[in-house]
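Re: that backbone. C-alpha cells:
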C-alpha cells in the first residue's frame, strides 16, 4: 500500500537517507539549490515538496522517488529504534581508542560510517525476513 502524500513518512525517509549517506541539510541545500527553511519544513513533516523536488532528491541519493514517498520497509518504530541503538553502540566501539584499526592506524570516520551503513541495511533485511518467517499470515503475498 502506498502512502503517497504522507508528510511523516517522507520526512522519516529523508532523514534516513541523510543518515545513510552521511550528509547534512546544508550540504543537500547547497548542492541542489534548495532554500534551508523549505528543506527544514520537509524534514520536519510540515510540508510536502513538489514532485520535481522529490525527483531532484531521489536523483541526489541515487534512489527511486518511491523510496522517498512510500513506507520504506515495513519495520516498526521500535525495530528502527533497536537497530539505531545497536548502530550507535557499534559506532562508539569502532571509533574508540581500541576500536577498528587498519595497518595499525585507526579507521577513519568515513570508513566507520560505510561499515555502519552496510550493517543497517543488513539488519533491516534480517528483521524483515524474520517478520515474514515468524508471522507469515501478516506478510502473505497474493
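Recovered sequence:
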Amino acid at each position: 500500500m502506498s502512502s503517497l502524500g504522507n508528510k511523516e513518512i517522507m520526512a522519516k525517509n529523508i532523514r534516513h537517507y541523510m543518515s545513510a549517506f552521511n550528509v547534512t541539510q546544508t550540504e543537500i541545500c547547497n548542492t541542489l539549490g534548495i532554500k534551508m527553511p523549505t528543506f527544514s519544513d520537509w524534514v520536519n513533516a510540515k510540508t510536502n515538496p513538489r514532485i520535481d523536488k522529490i525527483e531532484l532528491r531521489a536523483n541526489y541519493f541515487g534512489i527511486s522517488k518511491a523510496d522517498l514517498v512510500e513506507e520504506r520497509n515495513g519495520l516498526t518504530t521500535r525495530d528502527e529504534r533497536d537497530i539505531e541503538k545497536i548502530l550507535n553502540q557499534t559506532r562508539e566501539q569502532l571509533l574508540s581508542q581500541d576500536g577498528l584499526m587498519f595497518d595499525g592506524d585507526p579507521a577513519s570516520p568515513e570508513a566507520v560510517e560505510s561499515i555502519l551503513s552496510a550493517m543497517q541495511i543488513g539488519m533491516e533485511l534480517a528483521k524483515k525476513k524474520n517478520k515474514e518467517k515468524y508471522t507469515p499470515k501478516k506478510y502473505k503475498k497474493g
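The beta strands are 101-102, 105-106. Residues 42 and 49 are 7 Å apart (CA to CA).
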